[in-house]
Design brief:
Elements lengths: L3 H11 L5 E4 L6 H12 L6 E5 L1 E3 L8 E3 L5 H14 L8 E7 L2 E8 L15 H4 L2 E4 L2 E4 L2 H9 L10 E2 L9 H14 L10 H7 L3 E4 L2 E5 H7 L2 H7 L5 E5 L15 E5 L3 H15 L2 E4 L8 E4 L3 H13 L9 E5 L4 E4 L8
Parallel strand pairs: 1-2, 12-16
Antiparallel strand pairs: 2-6, 3-4, 5-6, 7-8, 9-11, 10-11, 12-13, 14-15, 16-17
């Protein structure tokens, strides 16, 4: 979920967009529900942000917004969460937080994009033909028959993981990632059937590649697991891991220098996960252990390797890659925080 300052900067520089909508937010009325519906439906948008308590100044020729704040913010966020739960064809779970600026309160709500199998999302009291909206630019457009047909068609399409990335080819595979997969798979099961295939056959069997009009492309999963760093930068520039070191127990107050050190990881998951685990282990303090009947000390990390591995793997495998934002790993002096953008694919 983006911070208020970044959303405010975008709003002030380019006005409302397909992913940002500002409203006064005196109550949760039909206009807000239509925006929630549009953010949920628009294919490949990844959802969008509502800023309640922010309005555009009258007669402004350029993007010029002011913070007016919302009254009874706790009541307002409860109303928004409740109507997202009951007023739509599916249950929508917005991420909501309150920000205080200049003595006023702004409510920020991130509305996730619904799964293709759940679309079209519509406002129940209006029914599907009259209560379905898409996000077109900065407007909430009521769906016509062609829009509904497209949204229904999405239910029959492949999952996001198996969708071909048509600007990729087999040449975009990182050979090191294939070797890593073969080695790790053999550690689990030496006679695994796919290990007898050549590389092209194995990738296809794993769902990492797919053909479109006779051309072989990487799927989304294939790109993430086996793609070269260069093609990952080209196709998914914001999908990376940022490892940040903070000297202390709190996020630094200086917005221009919030951390002491930053390492960016952008490579196939088969290679990136072990590197990140090793980096975290290197940064964790170690305790002293002298095993019985031994004259040599053993340094033991304060956090077991299996715990680090589980946290990193869960973060990278359960996140939504529809959201184009990095996973953040922040090492404070007394803890490590792992933060994903968007929402988890598991409870």
């Amino acid at each position: 979920m983006l911070e208020f300052d970044e959303l405010w900067e975008r709003l002030s520089s380019v006005d409302e967009t397909d992913t940002i909508e500002a409203k006064r937010g005196s109550d949760i009325g039909d206009s807000i529900l239509e925006t929630v519906c549009a953010f949920s439906n628009e294919p490949e948008l990844g959802g969008g942000y509502l800023l309640l308590g922010v309005v555009k100044k009258e007669n402004a020729l350029f993007p010029d917004y002011e913070i007016v704040g919302v009254e009874k913010p706790d009541e307002l966020q409860g109303s928004l969460a409740g109507r997202c739960r009951t007023d739509f064809s599916i249950t929508i779970r917005p991420q909501i937080k309150l920000e205080h600026r200049n003595g006023k309160t702004v409510l920020i709500a991130y509305i996730p994009e619904a799964q293709a199998s759940q679309k079209p999302v519509y406002i129940k009291k209006k029914d599907v033909k009259h209560g379905t909206y898409r996000r077109i630019g900065s407007t909430d457009a009521k769906c016509v028959d062609n829009d509904l047909e497209e949204l229904y068609q999405g239910r029959k399409n492949q999952s996001f993981d198996s969708m071909p990335q048509e600007r990729t080819s087999i040449e975009d595979i990182d050979e090191r990632a294939i070797k890593a997969y073969r080695r790790l798979r053999a550690d689990v099961k030496k006679d695994a059937e796919e290990l007898s295939y050549d590389d092209d056959e194995m990738l296809n069997a794993l769902g990492a590649t797919a053909r479109v009009k006779g051309e072989l492309h990487l799927t989304t999963a294939g790109l993430l697991l086996f793609g070269k760093p260069s093609v990952l930068r080209r196709e998914l520039p914001m999908v990376r891991v940022d490892y940040m070191r903070v000297n202390g127990r709190e996020w630094l107050a200086d917005p221009e220098n919030p951390y002491d050190d930053l390492i960016e990881y952008r490579e196939p998951l088969m290679l990136m996960i072990p590197r990140i685990i090793a980096q975290i282990e290197e940064d964790i303090p170690r305790g002293f252990l002298l095993p019985p009947d031994s004259i040599q000390r053993k340094d033991v990390p304060l956090i077991p390797r299996r715990v680090i591995r589980e946290a990193v793997v869960n973060a990278l495998m359960h996140r939504s890659y529809r959201i184009h934002a990095p996973t953040q790993i922040i090492r404070f002096s007394n803890r490590i925080e792992i933060i994903n953008a968007g929402f988890s694919l598991l409870p």
